[in-house]
UniProtKB/TrEMBL annotation:
It comes from the Bacteria. PROSITE patterns: ABC_TRANSPORTER_1, ABC_TRANSPORTER_2. Residues 9-238 form the ABC transporter domain. GO terms for molecular function: ATP binding; ATP hydrolysis activity. This is ABC-2 type transport system ATP-binding protein.
Length: 312
């Protein structure tokens, strides 16, 4: 196996117990491939922040092994940390510093020599070059978040952690940040994304890892996960309102809307028989006249909520 084939981040049996006795991580195993975008999803208190803190060296690793680019984060901390860029959720920036100076300073923190051309390239890639001489406190919230990413990229890391990168920004800026992530992925940067916006993970991630109660519940390719666990719903609009589900249809899992004008039917799209054909026949036999029929698929959010709900 060549270095390009090995996972760029390898986490093996990692556990973390705080002085209070709280066990934040309970034997986490996770491998992240070079160049992929991994979405790390989990409710508050699930262990996301603890895991990222251990990988990035902001918390002490006492049990288990974490390697970044083949470098052990404890024994070879400096080499491992040089490979990592971290974009925190908090907008922790020096308000009176100029954009270009702030990014150049971050590069120097990692012992990199001055490189004005590289700083310019980073700023241009994030549409910040026109703001290079602006002070941080003159920028919008979305621009400040772009500066955080620029600072994290200044030392040319191979792994980028984005902790809630679009928190607190509007929909237009969020889509702009997605474009930035796509460009970084195209450049070969490995991205680990934590987010509360499930559609962000659905749109951006190659794989999804769900963490809850300090354990990884599931790691799967995003599309495959949705195909395997996502159900579809058939919504049947009626020409006239129904007062109740007819007794002849009780064998189906049906939900009648409050106004009686539509019926929802949940089914497994992967099942050999969905039951749709027989349902439509039985609806007609029961005297219900259809106006329209449409289908919708569970989102990643639906799947995530159900997974966490089922976690004991």
């Amino acid at each position: 196996m060549t270095s390009q084939d090995r996972p760029i981040v390898s986490i093996r049996d990692v556990r973390k117990t705080y002085a209070t006795g709280f066990q934040a991580l309970k034997g986490v195993d996770l491998e992240i491939a070079r160049g992929e975008v991994l979405a790390l999803l989990g409710p508050n208190g699930a262990g996301k922040t603890t895991l990222i803190s251990l990988i990035c060296g902001m918390a002490r690793l006492e049990e288990g092994i974490i390697e970044v680019g083949g470098h052990d984060v404890v024994r070879d901390y400096r080499a491992a940390r040089r490979m990592i860029g971290l974009v925190p959720q908090e907008l922790a920036l020096e308000p009176f510093s100029k954009v270009r100076d702030s990014v150049a300073y971050s590069r120097g923190l990692f012992g990199k020599p001055r490189d004005d051309a590289r700083v310019e390239a980073v700023l241009r890639s994030l549409s910040l070059w026109e703001k290079r001489d602006a002070k941080i406190n003159e920028l919008s919230g979305g621009m400040k978040r772009r500066v955080l990413i620029a600072k994290a990229l200044a030392h040319d890391p191979e792994v980028l952690f984005l902790d809630e990168p679009t928190a607190g920004v509007d929909v237009e800026l969020r889509k702009g940040m997605w474009d930035v992530m796509r460009e970084l992925r195209a450049q070969g940067v490995t991205i680990i994304l934590t987010t509360h916006y499930i559609e962000e993970a659905e749109a951006m991630a190659d794989r999804v890892a769900v963490i809850s109660g300090g354990r990884i519940l599931l790691i799967e390719e995003t599309g495959a996960l949705m195909r395997r666990m996502g159900s579809k719903r058939l919504t049947i609009e009626l020409q006239t309102p129904a007062g109740a589900i007819p007794p002849a249809l009780e064998r189906y899992d049906l939900t009648l809307s409050a106004d009686g004008m539509s019926i929802d039917y949940a089914y497994d799209r992967a099942a050999e028989r969905t039951g749709i054909a027989s349902l439509l026949h039985d609806l007609s036999q029961a005297g219900l006249r259809l106006r329209d029929v449409r289908t919708t698929q569970d989102s990643l959010e639906d799947i995530f909520v159900n997974l966490v709900k089922e976690d004991p």
